[in-house]
Protein backbone atom coordinates (compact mmCIF):
# COMPACT_ATOMS: atom_id res chain seq x y z
CA UNK A 1 0.00 0.00 0.00
CA UNK A 2 1.29 3.49 -0.87
CA UNK A 3 1.02 6.14 1.82
CA UNK A 4 0.96 9.76 0.72
CA UNK A 5 2.64 12.20 3.06
CA UNK A 6 0.38 14.97 4.39
CA UNK A 7 2.37 17.72 2.70
CA UNK A 8 2.19 15.88 -0.63
CA UNK A 9 -1.58 15.55 -0.31
CA UNK A 10 -1.88 19.24 0.44
CA UNK A 11 0.31 20.09 -2.53
CA UNK A 12 -1.72 17.94 -4.94
CA UNK A 13 -4.97 19.40 -3.68
CA UNK A 14 -3.64 22.92 -4.04
CA UNK A 15 -2.52 22.27 -7.61
CA UNK A 16 -5.90 20.75 -8.48
CA UNK A 17 -7.78 23.66 -6.89
CA UNK A 18 -5.60 26.15 -8.71
CA UNK A 19 -6.28 24.45 -12.03
CA UNK A 20 -10.03 24.23 -11.32
CA UNK A 21 -10.14 27.93 -10.46
CA UNK A 22 -8.29 28.76 -13.67
CA UNK A 23 -10.71 26.63 -15.67
CA UNK A 24 -13.65 28.45 -14.12
CA UNK A 25 -12.09 31.81 -14.98
CA UNK A 26 -11.61 30.53 -18.53
CA UNK A 27 -15.27 29.52 -18.80
CA UNK A 28 -16.37 33.00 -17.71
CA UNK A 29 -14.13 34.81 -20.18
CA UNK A 30 -15.31 36.21 -23.49
CA UNK A 31 -12.55 34.36 -25.37
CA UNK A 32 -13.62 30.84 -24.34
CA UNK A 33 -14.68 28.49 -27.14
CA UNK A 34 -15.39 24.85 -28.04
CA UNK A 35 -11.72 23.91 -27.84
CA UNK A 36 -11.69 25.04 -24.22
CA UNK A 37 -14.74 22.88 -23.51
CA UNK A 38 -13.02 19.80 -24.89
CA UNK A 39 -9.82 20.55 -23.02
CA UNK A 40 -11.75 20.96 -19.77
CA UNK A 41 -13.47 17.62 -20.21
CA UNK A 42 -10.15 15.92 -20.90
CA UNK A 43 -8.71 17.50 -17.77
CA UNK A 44 -11.65 16.29 -15.68
CA UNK A 45 -11.37 12.76 -17.04
CA UNK A 46 -7.62 12.52 -16.50
CA UNK A 47 -7.58 12.42 -12.68
CA UNK A 48 -10.17 11.89 -9.90
CA UNK A 49 -8.47 14.72 -8.01
CA UNK A 50 -9.45 17.07 -10.83
CA UNK A 51 -13.09 16.03 -10.46
CA UNK A 52 -12.83 16.60 -6.71
CA UNK A 53 -11.45 20.10 -7.24
CA UNK A 54 -14.16 20.95 -9.76
CA UNK A 55 -16.81 19.81 -7.29
CA UNK A 56 -15.32 22.17 -4.73
CA UNK A 57 -15.70 25.02 -7.22
CA UNK A 58 -19.30 23.87 -7.77
CA UNK A 59 -19.99 24.00 -4.04
CA UNK A 60 -18.46 27.44 -3.73
CA UNK A 61 -20.57 28.82 -6.59
CA UNK A 62 -23.73 27.44 -5.01
CA UNK A 63 -22.81 29.12 -1.73
CA UNK A 64 -21.63 32.51 -2.88
CA UNK A 65 -22.83 32.92 -6.45
CA UNK A 66 -20.53 33.87 -9.34
CA UNK A 67 -16.97 34.19 -8.06
CA UNK A 68 -14.13 34.51 -10.59
CA UNK A 69 -11.52 31.79 -10.72
CA UNK A 70 -8.58 33.41 -8.92
CA UNK A 71 -10.81 34.54 -6.08
CA UNK A 72 -12.43 31.09 -5.95
CA UNK A 73 -8.99 29.56 -5.50
CA UNK A 74 -8.14 31.72 -2.51
CA UNK A 75 -11.50 31.07 -0.85
CA UNK A 76 -11.34 27.35 -1.54
CA UNK A 77 -7.90 27.08 -0.03
CA UNK A 78 -9.09 28.79 3.13
CA UNK A 79 -12.13 26.50 3.26
CA UNK A 80 -9.92 23.43 2.94
CA UNK A 81 -7.79 24.60 5.85
CA UNK A 82 -10.82 25.44 8.02
CA UNK A 83 -13.67 23.13 7.09
CA UNK A 84 -16.12 24.75 9.51
CA UNK A 85 -15.29 28.34 8.56
CA UNK A 86 -18.20 30.75 8.82
CA UNK A 87 -19.63 32.83 6.00
CA UNK A 88 -18.16 35.96 7.58
CA UNK A 89 -14.73 34.34 7.51
CA UNK A 90 -15.18 33.66 3.80
CA UNK A 91 -16.13 37.28 3.22
CA UNK A 92 -13.09 38.52 5.11
CA UNK A 93 -11.01 36.26 2.90
CA UNK A 94 -12.49 37.89 -0.18
CA UNK A 95 -11.65 41.34 1.14
CA UNK A 96 -8.09 40.25 1.94
CA UNK A 97 -7.55 39.01 -1.61
CA UNK A 98 -8.56 42.36 -3.06
CA UNK A 99 -6.66 44.30 -0.44
CA UNK A 100 -3.42 42.55 -1.35
CA UNK A 101 -3.96 43.08 -5.06
CA UNK A 102 -4.12 39.38 -5.88
CA UNK A 103 -7.02 39.94 -8.25
CA UNK A 104 -7.27 42.69 -10.85
CA UNK A 105 -10.36 44.83 -11.35
CA UNK A 106 -11.03 43.40 -14.81
CA UNK A 107 -11.02 39.80 -13.61
CA UNK A 108 -13.30 40.73 -10.72
CA UNK A 109 -15.84 42.73 -12.73
CA UNK A 110 -18.66 40.23 -12.07
CA UNK A 111 -18.79 40.38 -8.26
CA UNK A 112 -16.84 43.21 -6.57
CA UNK A 113 -16.03 42.76 -2.91
CA UNK A 114 -18.57 45.45 -1.96
CA UNK A 115 -21.26 43.01 -3.04
CA UNK A 116 -20.46 40.47 -0.33
CA UNK A 117 -19.75 43.09 2.33
CA UNK A 118 -22.92 45.11 1.64
CA UNK A 119 -25.73 45.35 4.19
CA UNK A 120 -27.97 43.18 2.01
CA UNK A 121 -27.13 41.12 -1.08
CA UNK A 122 -28.35 38.26 -3.23
CA UNK A 123 -26.49 35.46 -4.96
CA UNK A 124 -26.84 34.72 -8.65
CA UNK A 125 -30.39 33.49 -9.26
CA UNK A 126 -31.72 34.71 -5.90
CA UNK A 127 -34.55 37.25 -5.52
CA UNK A 128 -35.04 38.51 -1.95
CA UNK A 129 -37.51 40.81 -0.20
CA UNK A 130 -36.83 42.92 2.88
CA UNK A 131 -38.49 45.70 4.88
CA UNK A 132 -36.52 48.70 6.13
CA UNK A 133 -36.94 50.34 9.52
CA UNK A 134 -39.31 52.99 8.10
CA UNK A 135 -41.55 50.39 6.46
CA UNK A 136 -40.14 50.81 2.94
CA UNK A 137 -40.09 47.51 1.06
CA UNK A 138 -37.14 46.46 -1.12
CA UNK A 139 -36.87 43.54 -3.51
CA UNK A 140 -33.33 42.68 -4.59
CA UNK A 141 -32.95 41.02 -7.97
CA UNK A 142 -30.29 38.44 -8.85
CA UNK A 143 -26.66 39.26 -7.93
CA UNK A 144 -27.62 42.56 -6.29
CA UNK A 145 -26.30 44.44 -3.27
CA UNK A 146 -27.34 47.51 -1.30
CA UNK A 147 -26.12 49.50 1.68
CA UNK A 148 -28.66 51.32 3.86
CA UNK A 149 -27.88 54.69 5.46
CA UNK A 150 -30.70 56.37 7.37
CA UNK A 151 -29.88 59.69 9.05
CA UNK A 152 -31.89 62.50 10.61
CA UNK A 153 -32.03 64.23 7.22
CA UNK A 154 -32.18 61.49 4.59
CA UNK A 155 -33.11 57.88 3.88
CA UNK A 156 -30.40 56.62 1.51
CA UNK A 157 -30.04 53.29 -0.29
CA UNK A 158 -26.73 52.84 -2.11
CA UNK A 159 -27.08 50.34 -4.94
CA UNK A 160 -23.73 48.55 -5.19
CA UNK A 161 -24.70 46.00 -7.85
CA UNK A 162 -27.67 44.61 -9.72
CA UNK A 163 -31.24 45.85 -9.40
CA UNK A 164 -33.67 46.85 -6.67
CA UNK A 165 -37.42 47.48 -6.58
CA UNK A 166 -38.46 50.11 -4.04
CA UNK A 167 -41.92 50.70 -2.55
CA UNK A 168 -41.46 53.72 -0.33
CA UNK A 169 -43.22 54.22 3.00
CA UNK A 170 -44.31 57.54 4.48
CA UNK A 171 -41.83 59.08 6.86
CA UNK A 172 -42.39 61.04 10.06
CA UNK A 173 -44.96 63.78 9.59
CA UNK A 174 -42.90 66.17 11.75
CA UNK A 175 -39.68 65.72 9.79
CA UNK A 176 -40.24 63.83 6.50
CA UNK A 177 -36.92 62.76 5.07
CA UNK A 178 -36.37 62.33 1.33
CA UNK A 179 -35.86 58.76 0.10
CA UNK A 180 -32.93 58.44 -2.30
CA UNK A 181 -31.31 55.58 -4.24
CA UNK A 182 -27.71 56.31 -5.21
CA UNK A 183 -25.62 54.70 -7.97
CA UNK A 184 -22.22 55.66 -9.44
CA UNK A 185 -24.03 57.75 -12.08
CA UNK A 186 -26.22 59.83 -9.75
CA UNK A 187 -29.21 59.86 -7.42
CA UNK A 188 -32.89 58.91 -7.75
CA UNK A 189 -35.23 60.71 -5.37
CA UNK A 190 -38.61 59.13 -4.75
CA UNK A 191 -41.80 61.13 -4.57
CA UNK A 192 -44.03 58.64 -2.73
CA UNK A 193 -43.67 55.94 -5.32
CA UNK A 194 -42.84 52.43 -6.50
CA UNK A 195 -39.86 52.25 -8.81
CA UNK A 196 -36.86 50.11 -9.76
CA UNK A 197 -33.22 51.03 -10.25
CA UNK A 198 -30.81 48.83 -12.20
CA UNK A 199 -27.08 49.25 -12.61
CA UNK A 200 -25.85 48.56 -16.14
CA UNK A 201 -22.53 49.00 -17.93
CA UNK A 202 -21.68 52.67 -17.36
CA UNK A 203 -25.28 53.75 -16.82
CA UNK A 204 -28.31 53.39 -14.56
CA UNK A 205 -31.82 52.43 -15.63
CA UNK A 206 -34.87 53.71 -13.73
CA UNK A 207 -38.42 52.39 -14.19
CA UNK A 208 -41.36 54.06 -12.43
CA UNK A 209 -44.52 52.08 -11.70
CA UNK A 210 -46.32 54.57 -9.42
CA UNK A 211 -46.13 58.38 -9.07
CA UNK A 212 -42.74 59.80 -10.16
CA UNK A 213 -39.04 60.12 -9.34
CA UNK A 214 -36.50 62.87 -9.76
CA UNK A 215 -33.18 61.84 -11.30
CA UNK A 216 -30.07 63.93 -10.65
CA UNK A 217 -26.93 62.92 -12.53
CA UNK A 218 -23.54 63.14 -10.85
CA UNK A 219 -22.82 66.38 -12.72
CA UNK A 220 -26.11 67.96 -11.57
CA UNK A 221 -28.48 67.49 -14.51
CA UNK A 222 -32.06 66.95 -13.25
CA UNK A 223 -34.85 65.01 -14.93
CA UNK A 224 -38.36 63.89 -13.91
CA UNK A 225 -39.55 60.38 -14.73
CA UNK A 226 -43.34 59.88 -14.34
CA UNK A 227 -45.33 56.71 -13.73
CA UNK A 228 -45.38 54.24 -16.62
CA UNK A 229 -42.07 55.52 -17.96
CA UNK A 230 -38.40 54.55 -17.78
CA UNK A 231 -35.12 56.23 -18.59
CA UNK A 232 -31.39 55.61 -18.41
CA UNK A 233 -28.80 58.06 -17.22
CA UNK A 234 -25.04 58.39 -17.14
CA UNK A 235 -22.96 60.62 -14.91
CA UNK A 236 -23.65 63.50 -17.34
CA UNK A 237 -26.99 63.08 -19.10
CA UNK A 238 -30.32 61.25 -19.06
CA UNK A 239 -32.27 59.81 -21.97
CA UNK A 240 -35.83 60.92 -22.70
CA UNK A 241 -38.40 58.78 -20.84
CA UNK A 242 -39.97 55.90 -22.78
CA UNK A 243 -42.97 53.69 -22.05
CA UNK A 244 -42.90 50.68 -19.72
CA UNK A 245 -44.40 47.31 -20.55
CA UNK A 246 -46.97 46.00 -18.02
CA UNK A 247 -44.70 43.03 -17.25
CA UNK A 248 -41.44 44.91 -16.70
CA UNK A 249 -41.71 44.19 -12.97
CA UNK A 250 -42.30 40.44 -13.48
CA UNK A 251 -38.85 39.68 -12.05
CA UNK A 252 -40.18 40.60 -8.60
CA UNK A 253 -42.37 37.50 -8.92
CA UNK A 254 -39.38 35.46 -10.18
CA UNK A 255 -40.63 35.58 -13.75
CA UNK A 256 -39.00 36.74 -16.98
CA UNK A 257 -41.71 37.86 -19.41
CA UNK A 258 -40.65 38.79 -22.93
CA UNK A 259 -42.48 39.92 -26.06
CA UNK A 260 -40.86 39.42 -29.47
CA UNK A 261 -37.36 39.60 -28.01
CA UNK A 262 -34.31 38.47 -30.04
CA UNK A 263 -32.99 35.16 -28.76
CA UNK A 264 -29.54 36.50 -27.94
CA UNK A 265 -31.06 39.30 -25.84
CA UNK A 266 -33.33 36.79 -24.10
CA UNK A 267 -30.40 34.55 -23.23
CA UNK A 268 -28.45 37.55 -21.92
CA UNK A 269 -31.34 38.31 -19.55
CA UNK A 270 -31.78 34.68 -18.56
CA UNK A 271 -28.04 34.42 -17.98
CA UNK A 272 -28.31 36.95 -15.15
CA UNK A 273 -30.02 34.23 -13.11
CA UNK A 274 -27.50 31.41 -13.55
CA UNK A 275 -23.80 31.02 -12.84
CA UNK A 276 -21.26 30.37 -15.56
CA UNK A 277 -21.44 30.90 -19.31
CA UNK A 278 -24.60 30.94 -21.43
CA UNK A 279 -23.74 31.42 -25.09
CA UNK A 280 -25.88 32.00 -28.18
CA UNK A 281 -24.62 31.07 -31.64
CA UNK A 282 -24.81 34.02 -34.08
CA UNK A 283 -26.77 31.87 -36.53
CA UNK A 284 -29.76 31.64 -34.15
CA UNK A 285 -29.49 35.04 -32.44
CA UNK A 286 -32.15 36.58 -34.68
CA UNK A 287 -34.98 34.24 -33.63
CA UNK A 288 -37.74 36.10 -31.78
CA UNK A 289 -39.18 34.75 -28.55
CA UNK A 290 -42.37 35.53 -26.63
CA UNK A 291 -43.31 33.90 -23.35
CA UNK A 292 -43.10 33.78 -19.56
CA UNK A 293 -40.30 31.86 -17.85
CA UNK A 294 -39.44 31.20 -14.22
CA UNK A 295 -36.03 32.59 -13.31
CA UNK A 296 -35.65 30.11 -10.44
CA UNK A 297 -35.58 27.25 -12.99
CA UNK A 298 -33.47 28.46 -15.89
CA UNK A 299 -32.79 24.91 -17.07
CA UNK A 300 -36.50 24.48 -17.78
CA UNK A 301 -36.52 27.72 -19.78
CA UNK A 302 -33.56 26.51 -21.83
CA UNK A 303 -35.14 23.13 -22.52
CA UNK A 304 -38.26 24.93 -23.77
CA UNK A 305 -36.20 26.64 -26.48
CA UNK A 306 -35.45 23.38 -28.26
CA UNK A 307 -39.19 22.69 -28.49
CA UNK A 308 -39.99 26.07 -30.03
CA UNK A 309 -37.01 26.76 -32.30
CA UNK A 310 -34.65 24.77 -34.53
CA UNK A 311 -31.91 24.98 -31.92
CA UNK A 312 -29.99 22.57 -29.73
CA UNK A 313 -29.22 23.39 -26.10
CA UNK A 314 -25.92 21.80 -25.13
CA UNK A 315 -25.11 21.50 -21.43
CA UNK A 316 -21.37 20.98 -21.83
CA UNK A 317 -20.72 21.43 -18.10
CA UNK A 318 -22.78 22.78 -15.21
CA UNK A 319 -21.33 26.20 -15.93
CA UNK A 320 -21.20 26.10 -19.71
CA UNK A 321 -24.34 26.03 -21.84
CA UNK A 322 -24.42 26.79 -25.56
CA UNK A 323 -27.49 27.37 -27.72
CA UNK A 324 -26.58 26.37 -31.27
CA UNK A 325 -28.30 25.79 -34.57
CA UNK A 326 -29.82 22.32 -34.74
CA UNK A 327 -27.90 20.14 -37.18
From TrEMBL:
All copies of domain FecR N-terminal, residue ranges: 18-60
Residue intervals of the FecR protein domain: 119-214
Protein name, UniProt field: FecR domain-containing protein
Native organism: Halomonas llamarensis
Amino acid sequence: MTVTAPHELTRSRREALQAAAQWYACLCSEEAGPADEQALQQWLDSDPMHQWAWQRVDQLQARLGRVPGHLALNTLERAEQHVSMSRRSVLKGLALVLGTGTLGVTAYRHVPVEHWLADHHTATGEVKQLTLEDGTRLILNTASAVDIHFTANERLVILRAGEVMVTTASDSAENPRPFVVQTPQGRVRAQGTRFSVRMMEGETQVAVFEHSVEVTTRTGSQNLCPAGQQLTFTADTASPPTGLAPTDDAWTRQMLVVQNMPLDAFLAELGRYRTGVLRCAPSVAHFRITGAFRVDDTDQALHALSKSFPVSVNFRTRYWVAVDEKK
